[in-house]
Design a protein that fits this description.
Layout lengths: L1 H17 L6 H29 L7 H25 L3 E3 L5 E3 L1 H28 L5 H26 L6 H49 L18 E2 L8 E9 L2 E9 L3 H21 L3 H14 L7 E9 L4 E7 L5 E4 L2 E4 L19 E4 L5 E3 L3 H4 L11 H7 L8 E2 L3 H14 L1
Parallel strand pairs: 3-12
Antiparallel strand pairs: 1-2, 4-5, 5-6, 6-7, 7-10, 8-9, 8-11
Helix pairs in contact: 1-2, 1-6, 2-3, 2-4, 4-5, 5-6, 7-8
Length: 429
């Protein structure tokens, strides 16, 4: 509508500037006919926009064609042929433009009809009101003011300011009313959108705090246990994410270690992450090997997985007295172990991701960690490490970035974000 209004003013200026100059007779026709065509299009767009906001648009396709498509097409044809037919306007030998009968009989009433229907719909919406739909009600009030401003300014110009061209006066009145309408509607819409965004951001901040509070974050985690050392961190790319880690004592001699990566991102992944974490924790406390725990959790997750999400999980149980680490992987990245000062991938036996298929089975893998040994587990933030040009780093470099002492490692919701942080740290070091 705004672009049409700007073009409308340009054509009217062309018309007014060229009128009275016989040598610019063609430009006078172009300005007048362009003005009429754009005025029809403008009122059609305005009418359709208002009725759309009030849910009053014609449901019938034929009514839509008859009311919104046919008039602009007919007016375009009549205006294009008017230099020869003189159906709407006529320019004499002196370059002066005159209205023909069809102009006042068809053009003016049609424009009034479109605007009047929009204003009546606005009045009806304002009187009836829509409970809870403040934006639509506000548009209705602004449309009523728009409908009042046009004739008020138009009459004031004609009677008080002695404007020679009533068409120039009409366009000026329409322009002022249009500025009022768009400014108010846009401002209120912007303020409401901003309020919604701020409320959403506040909710996400709270969600971030809730999610962070569910993950162990105090180190040393078990200050009274000298047999092992744990370090962990999580840096999600968004406010909330689907990656998570956990570690907890099952009993005095068994430590459970968990790291997982939920499919997807954002709030859905965060909700799925929280439920998965709780299930894994509860079933680990019930007892069983890592493979048995993952099978039970997978059965429960799949049975209630209407969103068809899944989570890759690495679950290990460390027997502290012997150093024996029993682990099972549900499609997760291979851990990196440091045994006797040598780092290598521990290619454990993988099963399907939790929630991907009913009846998935998992296999246990056992290694023994001695004093000074360590294991590093991570999500795809490390496995998909990239350089500054978003190119995957060579495998040997990615592997070197993965070397950290501790039971759980750094991971991120976005592989690029988390990996770049690691790269920066490594280069500074």
């Amino acid at each position: 509508m705004l672009l049409t209004a700007v073009a409308l003013g340009c054509f009217e200026i062309l018309w007014s500037f060229c009128e009275g100059h016989p040598e610019w007779k063609a430009l006078t026709y172009i300005g007048a006919c362009g003005y009429m065509i754009l005025f029809v299009i403008f009122t059609v767009l305005l009418n359709r926009y208002i009725l759309f906001r009030f849910d009053r648009l014609p449901k019938s396709r034929w009514l839509t064609i008859l009311f919104y498509i046919a008039p602009p097409v007919i007016f375009s044809i009549l205006c294009i042929t008017t230099p020869w037919t003189h159906w709407f306007v006529r320019v004499d030998e002196a370059g002066v433009l005159y209205e023909e009968v069809l102009f006042d009989a068809l053009f003016t009433p049609l424009m009034i009809l479109y605007v009047l229907i929009a204003v009546v719909s606005a009045v009806r919406c304002a009187i009836k009101g829509r409970r809870g739909d403040h934006a639509t009600t506000r548009i209705a009030y602004n449309m009523i003011v728009f409908g009042v401003l046009i004739p008020a300014i138009y009459i004031m110009e004609i009677l008080l300011l002695d404007v020679d061209s009533k068409y120039l006066a009409l366009n000026f009145a329409v322009s002022i009313a249009m500025v009022y309408l768009t400014t108010n509607v846009s401002t209120h819409t912007l303020l409401e959108t901003r309020a919604k965004v701020e409320a959403t951001e506040a909710d996400l901040r709270i969600g971030t705090e809730i999610q962070a509070s569910m993950l162990p974050s105090t180190f040393p985690a078990f200050p009274n246990r000298k047999e092992f050392d744990i370090h962990a961190s999580m840096d999600p790319a968004k406010e909330v994410g689907g990656d998570f880690y956990d570690f907890f004592m099952i009993d005095e001699d068994h430590l459970a270690l968990v790291i997982a990566d939920v499919s997807g991102k954002g709030i859905p992944a965060a909700l799925f992450m929280m439920s998965s974490k709780i299930l894994i924790n509860d079933h680990a406390m019930i007892g069983g090997t890592p493979a048995e725990i993952l099978e039970r959790v997978n059965k429960l997750v799949f049975a209630n997985n209407k969103a068809h999400m899944f989570v890759t999980v690495w679950l290990g149980i460390l027997e502290i007295s012997t150093g024996k680490l029993t682990s099972a992987s549900a499609g997760h990245e291979y851990p990196i172990v440091n045994v006797n000062g040598k780092y290598e991938l521990m290619k454990d036996k993988h099963g399907l991701a939790v929630g991907a298929m009913a009846g998935s089975q998992y296999l246990n893998t056992e290694i023994t960690l001695h004093q000074g040994d360590s294991i590093f587990v991570y999500t795809d933030g490390v496995a998909e490490a990239t350089d500054a040009n978003n190119r995957l780093l060579p495998c040997r470099v990615r592997r070197s970035l993965s070397i950290r002492r501790g039971a759980c490692g750094r991971q991120g919701e976005n592989p690029f974000t988390s990996t770049k942080i690691i790269l920066a740290d490594r280069r500074k070091a």
